[in-house]
Amino acid sequence: PEAAVFMSEAVAAVLRNDLIAAYNALSALMEDEIPDQFAEDFLLLVLRLAAKLEYTDDFIYFKKLQISMLIDAGRNEKAKHELSDWDEILPDDPDFKELKRRLGG
Fold first, then answer.
1. Contact, 49 vs 22, CB < 8 A?
2. What residues contact residue 58 under an 8 Å CB cut-off, 6+ apart?
3. Number of C-beta neighbours around residue 58 at 10 A
4. CA-CA distance, 81 to 60, in Å (whole number)?
5. Fewest C-beta atoms under 10 Å: which of 10, 68, 74, 83?
6. Which of the 8 DSSP states describes residue 35?
7. Could you give the angle at which helices 36-52 and 8-15 cross, rounded to 10 degrees?
8. pTM for this one?
């Protein structure tokens, strides 16, 4: 509930089915640092919106942030799961290679 309040403008736009406005509201939130307690919910919502809107580059950027956050939090199994398909999708991406290295693989 607190994350929904933090992202209230974006949540309201999603409820109106105005996904571009929702994405723009989340983008505006990124001008400041996202509080740690809302980071995971923020990333889940922005990833879903980027996917739905077919913002491929943004999706990849936020996926990297999500995986990095999971590694930082010690949630390595979840990070490995999130990272698993990227070897095939973008095998030469240096960021994904670095994330894999951080996971010990």
1. yes
2. 46, 50
3. 17
4. 15
5. 74
6. P
7. 30
8. 0.90
